[in-house]
Specification:
The protein has 14 helices and 16 strands. By secondary structure, it is α/β, with parallel strands linked by helices. Strands 4-3-5-6-7-14-13 form a seven-stranded mixed beta sheet, with helices on both faces. The chain has a four-stranded parallel beta sheet with strand order 9-8-10-11, with helices on both faces.
Length: 457
Amino acid sequence: MKQIFKFILVFVLVAFLAEEATAQTTKWREIHKVKRKETIFGIARDNGLTVDELIEANPEMTKPGYELKKGDFIYIPFPSKNIDTNAGTQTASAGNARQGADVDMRKREIRIGVMLPLHDYNGDGRRMVEYYRGVLMACDSLKKNGISVDIHAWNVPEDADIKKTLRDKNAALCDLIIGPLYSKQVKPLSDFAKAHDIKVLIPFSINTSELYSNRNIFQVYQSPNDYNEAVINRFLDKFEGYNTVFIDCNDTTSKKGIFTFGLRRRMEAMGRPHTITNLKSGEQAFAKAFSTVMPNVVILNTGRSPELNVAFAKINNLTMKSPKYSVSMFGYTEWMMYTKYNLDNFYKYDTYIPANFYTNPLSAQTARIELKYRWNFHADMMQALPRFAITGFDQAYYFIKGLHLYGKSFVGAKGVVGYTPIQTPLSFERVGDGGHQNRSILFVHYTLGHKIETIYY
């Protein structure tokens, strides 16, 4: 009897272990030993996974301060069944990636080319490497949603002949090319894109005449005149019923006159109430510029920090002596760099800052992408405005998803993608019979309730 019982016990134990082994086999594909210089992003990519899938299989990666180290053992799960495991790769063989090249892109992988200075020789290269990493992160996120991406990248520095890059057979097979960074490279790329019916996203500050003749060009940059005209229009809508107080800050280096002079001319033509004072004005003269029966909105004619600090001191003195003054502030993008010292004043005076980008450092979305960047590339993003990796993420996500949804008919119009940007809103309009230019602006609003809201236009 004892022998029979022992046999049954061993049989049950073996069956149990086999069942456990089967469960483990179905959950994990393998256990991977981390090699030198490997990253979370690279391991996920090489195994046909999204970063989120890899992290979900290895919960310790979510702990604060986690770092992937040589010699670590991590689980490699099976990829989601509904996801194309070729998505998000940096390079792919022409044979595999180009099968069905004539198939509607809505039914196949989206083919992306990146032609930017991707090197470590100077600031341009380092910024564009970070931008490109953001593009890769967008590809990884889209892959999780079942959107397959085949991406090729070329290092195109300032002294490069981009025509040589365009001779690569993979260039002609792209659906979208992101680049270039330098004006002299736009014309040959534009001609190439027109000949091969490829969309071109120019991601940074190039103002090119090709925009007016090539319907495939998408230019993110807005000229100062276009941008200021858009801000003036939104200001007039937002602050109807206010007394506008212009403060001359005696800054001879300021270039804000394009905005303040343009706004004053429009207000004079409309008969809108406004006054002008000086930062050096005495207490009584300064107070005369403010209305006691209407809310006031204050505009400085400089974006510099020292003058802003003086203005806040004078306005604080004014409102402390008499609570009858209602004051809001309307600023400039540079002011976002001064939040460390002026955040309380921004809240106190219901401040609005116009911009074409904004990263809320307090949002969970920002914290998540910063953490993923650190996991993937073992580095922090540059402390710059805008954040280049987030710019790359927003732009790539918007365009790749748009091409997946609409194919060649995608024109980047407002609201068609259904994507809330982390930093950079995009809303393209056609320019004449040519290409498309981004018209999106936003107001960052520091509310009296000590909250930050983003108002998109």
